[in-house]
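Researcher: Sequence recovery benchmark, item below. Answer with residues only.
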């Protein structure tokens, strides 16, 4: 029997709660989260466990950061960049027990994604203008070909940061609406 499997993610920025529930469901079947993978997770076959998962974002995760969660009953499972997943027994108090701290979490991530998304948008627009200018004979053809080639990865960066940015902003608006 297979000891490892890949689980595709629909995007933590878009459906964080659903993703954590999906990981919990797999844990009950004996597939425990091992680590992040490209666009998903790696699960390893172990003894089934009834656990809940929670995601947190922290750029400067140090020993104190992880011990804070440990003391609250949460065990660190894995990290990728500034994303950290913890697990705990069902009924453990949530990492974010109030709306204000949850809003701060999404505000931090929103700002982080915005920086990259806006930069990628500006670069992509510039490259597209250069490419179009080249096609219209205003610039040499070689410059247009190069700018068009560079624009594709830039647009991919824009999508992978712009979409999460919009998702975090949506979550913030939703929390603000329910908060007041």
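Model:
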């Amino acid at each position: 029997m297979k000891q490892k499997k890949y689980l595709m993610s629909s995007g933590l920025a878009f459906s964080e709660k659903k993703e954590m529930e999906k990981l919990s469901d797999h844990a009950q079947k004996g597939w425990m989260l091992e680590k992040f993978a490209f666009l998903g997770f790696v699960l390893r076959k172990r003894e089934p466990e009834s656990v809940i998962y929670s995601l947190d974002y922290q750029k400067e995760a140090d020993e104190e950061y992880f011990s804070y969660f440990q003391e609250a009953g949460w065990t660190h499972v894995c990290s990728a960049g500034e994303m950290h997943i913890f697990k705990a027994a069902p009924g453990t108090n949530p990492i974010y027990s109030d709306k204000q701290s949850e809003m701060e979490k999404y505000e931090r991530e929103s700002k982080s994604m915005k920086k990259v998304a806006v930069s990628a948008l500006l670069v992509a627009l510039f490259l597209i203008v250069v490419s179009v200018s080249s096609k219209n004979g205003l610039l040499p053809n070689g410059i247009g070909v190069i700018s068009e080639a560079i624009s594709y990865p830039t647009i991919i960066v824009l999508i992978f940061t712009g979409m999460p940015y919009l998702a975090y902003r949506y979550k913030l608006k939703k929390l603000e609406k329910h908060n007041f």
